[in-house]
Amino acid sequence: xxxxxxxxxxxxxxxxxxxxxxxxxxxxxxxxxxxxxxxxxxxxxxxxxxxxxxxxxxxxxxxxxxxxxxxxxxxxxxxxxxxxxxxxxxxxxxxxxxxxxxxxxxxxxxxxxxxxxxxxxxxxxxxxxxxxxxxxxxxxxxxxxxxxxxxxxxxxxxxxxxxxxxxxxxxxxxxxxxxxxxxxxxxxxxxxxxxxxxxxxxxxxxxxxxxxxxxxxxxxxxxxxxxxxxxxxxxxxxxxxxxxxxxxxxxxxxxxxxxxxxxxxxxxxxxxxxxxxxxxxxxxxxxxxxxxxxxxxxxxxxxxxxxxxxxxxxxxxxxxxxxxxxxxxxxxxxxxxxxxxxxxxxxxxxxxxxxxxxxxxxxxxxxxxxxxxxxxxxxxx
Length: 381
Ligand code: HEC
Description:
Number of helices: 14
Structural class: mainly alpha
Helix content: 55-70%
Bound molecules: heme C
Largest sheet: 2 strands, antiparallel
Mean pLDDT: 92
Low-confidence stretches: none
Strand content: under 5%
């Protein structure tokens, strides 16, 4: 998140510069534009050159480590959190019975193949049609989200879509944008004009990166929003949110260029509101699960405690027996009746209205049990 903020912040800042440069008044011949700004108690004055300066200054600032560290730290976290504990974070036995190695192979494979496909798309004739490129790109991402949702746990599917978008963005910087800038600097040192197609290619990748920023930021923190990945159609929710992110970004880009657009922002906001409504917790009741045998008979306290012991206490206990968690995750312990009562709403949200808990459904909690637990919790007050 931190290096991502540094990276995306710098990228937004240069976007702003491009859009706000004075390009017409009182400019020296060699300049494309200039800009005055006030920030943090000082005045700044900036100039952009049309081509390269006559002498390349010794201290030339580059912007690349923010991007590289986002990838390095992100992949490290992916490995430490998800791959190291693949059995609970990657695999959901109610979705697919996979081994850890299979789950990790699906994750890594998706990221690698996505980059290769994207890179080929960029080198094909498709790039000439930006709208078609965006449409195909979006359909592919939605398709991959759907595909991953058939194999991996929902939160792992989300984080992998984020990882694949983030990887594409960073490799754009590494393989295209920075090499093209290096070649620009080298040509300038020799007093040559350099290859203009390099600049064009790198601008295109920069534009792609720009549109991917908001979705990737959301996915980085998506684990904090169980209503999104916990939805039965989590891939659809993610696809819609990606569309919202791209739409909002496009509106800002148009605004920056001074192009008026009246529908994009309201439509994006409307889509976001639709997602909010769609992801509102739906209470699982016996009738909407088609269960006539459960009716509204509330199970005994003893049976409910047994159920929680079976499905939750291996992790959420003063003394967890789980081989992965030596202390209760998030400090949530359900050993006693009173602690269950205090956390009734949270338990309901995680294990009844959605199926996020038990994590990875390692204990194979069934729908019927969730309904019974929900009815019992509802009667606690
Ligand atoms: C395999 C271990 C494991 C099991 C079993 C498990 N949980 Fe969790 N639980 C976790 C972890 C890890 C977190 C923290 C998740 C996160 O960081 O998003 C968590 C978080 C929670 C939270 C807090 C959610 C929040 O963000 O506020 C609740 C409530 C919860 N679990 C309920 C349950 C219930 C109810 C059960 C049993 C039906 C259960 N858990 C079974 C590992 C487990």
